[in-house]
Design a protein that fits this description.
Helices cover 41% and strands 18% of the residues. It has 5 helices and 5 strands. A 3-stranded mixed β-sheet has the order 4-3-5, with no helix packed on it. A two-stranded antiparallel ribbon has the order 1-2. The chain is an alpha+beta fold. The chain starts with 8 loop residues before the first helix and ends with a helix. It binds zinc ion (ZN) and manganese (II) ion.
Length: 135
Amino acid sequence: MDRTPKRFPKRDAILTCLKQTTVHPSAEWVYARLKPEIPDLSLGTVYRNLALFKEQGLVVSLGTVNGVERFDGNTSPHVHFICTRCGAIADLDGLEPPDQLRDSAARRTGGAVTGCCLSFTGVCRECLNHQEESA
Ligand code: ZN
Ligand code: MN
């Protein structure tokens, strides 16, 4: 057992939580997940750390879905599908933003492109099925 005290246990727990989940969580989700383990955790601490991670490029923000900001611990360029009904965000594995698009974007701005966030929106399969059942 590693018994050396960690300097930033909350920060580390929040980052690990984001790196380990694929749900593309909100701050509230991270808070609810970690609260049982870290009883003195506050929602403010989660918000502060997420803002910091974002600044440091450790996580990416996927923008707001149904009014709530969502985060991804996977910072490599990949494509998302966002269900506008239930708010589910899924990685579209195997799809990558094309290099060509990135190059064109760089040419347009004349600056340096450092990231790309490509998302499709729509209604997920679960929500579609649900709709058919209740119709
Ligand atoms: Zn859905
Ligand atoms: Mn993702």
